[in-house]
């Protein structure tokens, strides 16, 4: 049985269309048709009347196949963008299989990989405690997740994660080397710290606080990354561990666990010790390290000898360099291959001078206030010289300008003046830094390699700020380490997104460079430059991409809108095109 439209031409010359309900039947070996009903001139019906007719007929069915807006039952909104992309990259890296294989002989009774993945996504979407994640996890798109989440499994997953840390890091290194097609020829290493709120973690200690919370105990974090900022490995150290004491462990792991035989080690000033340079030589790793601007005879001599920046060569707009003559360097730690390169950034020089001037002005105001109070007769005891100078020292130290003032107190009057020699010496350091290396690389390449150390510093800002590594509330050492590992994994995914996007832009830039018409080429390049986004920006845009969980005629599904502009531009070519249209089948 089917609907059929029959056209008839009348004597007035007009053609009329009639809607018939027709039935097919067999008579002998022939198939014939007969009209069951005529519904009249179809052109006389409005669209709304036809729709009503269809709905009326459909209502007679036991199993409906179409419906109206009234049949749509919307559910809750799910955070989709970040979970979807992380799961795509997670599968590419084979992390579920790697975690399961590493734990196969441990009698694990729950999906550790699923819990770790959820914690990583939470770090990227909205960093919160494990308890808060447990309460809100149903708001994330996790189609392959356990049906019944259990709070204690989040904490136990941290324990298991630390048990397999070496195997998992080696797996990630192998997969990323293959997927991103890089050969490790340069590694960058730096340290930071994060404070703990608990009081029972055995590796928490008071130390030099980079988070400006000396009142709280802390742990130290060392991170080894590629020039692209991809994390290779990390290590957590007790809170008062000096930077220089961490290099030995990192070099050992790089050599033994990752089998890296040849690469250049790039480190910051805190890594420069005779022992560490000897360790690098023993490992066969050439080095590029920052050198102290202050407190080193070598640096002072170089900065004074090469104070005139006219002799510096330009790398780019805000970066100049000059390789010092070996004859000008008197360094007890210098070997036959040591080289020293001075670098100058004019923008940073202006900033350094302005920062120093502001600090000096604030210190002068504080000293002038003390001077005025001493000049005004006060009732009670006379000021104690020792206590007064302690307060003066606190003021100058807090502002970091103690070297630039000469202060005297004769028991009644406080006087102070600038130390002009110290100020002149400090001015030589504005915008400058010194690099020491034993590589045979051209000086320009050495400088640019050292500048990539900023990737590590940015990694620390991402991990500590965006991913909210601290403060830590875990009291158990293993779980403190596991929590930090989750944060490093989250950063790795963010950085992988940025690397994939940057490589897409580089391919577009190469295509644009082949355009012969200059105006068109310049226009397209300018448009491409405006599309540069960091991994953090892409993730923020992905976090705004939500989907609606709904049910229609008994079928559950997700209604997936198009991604936000930045996410679509950044990931459309490699990830987002896997979303089929506007709907995605929902797995209950």
Summed up, what is this model?
With 588 residues, the chain is of the alpha+beta class. The protein has helices at residues 47-58, 81-93, 95-102, 112-125, 130-136, 151-163, 165-179, 247-256, 274-283, 297-305, 346-375, 385-399, 420-427, 443-451, 454-466, 477-513, 518-529, 535-542, 565-571, and strands spanning 2-9, 15-27, 30-41, 72-79, 186-195, 218-225, 231-238, 264-267, 287-291, 313-316, 319-323, 339-344, 405-409, 414-418, 432-437, 546-552, 555-559, 583-585.
What gyration radius follows from the Cα positions, in whole Å? 35 Å
Protein structure class: alpha+beta
Tally of DSSP β-strands: 18
Report the span from N to C terminus: 37 Å
Average pLDDT rating: 84
Task: Enumerate how many helices there are, as a single number.
Answer: 19
Can you list the strand order of the major beta sheet? 7-6-5-8-9-15-12-11-10
* Sheet with most strands: 9 strands, mixed
Helicity range of the residues? 40-55%
Descriptive notes:
- It is a single chain.
- With 588 residues, the protein is α+β, with helices and mostly antiparallel strands.
- It contains 19 helices and 18 strands.
- A hairpin with a 2-residue loop joins strand 16 and strand 17 (555-559).
- The longest helix has 37 residues, at 477-513.
- The two termini are 37 Å apart.
- Residues 577-588 have low confidence and may be disordered.
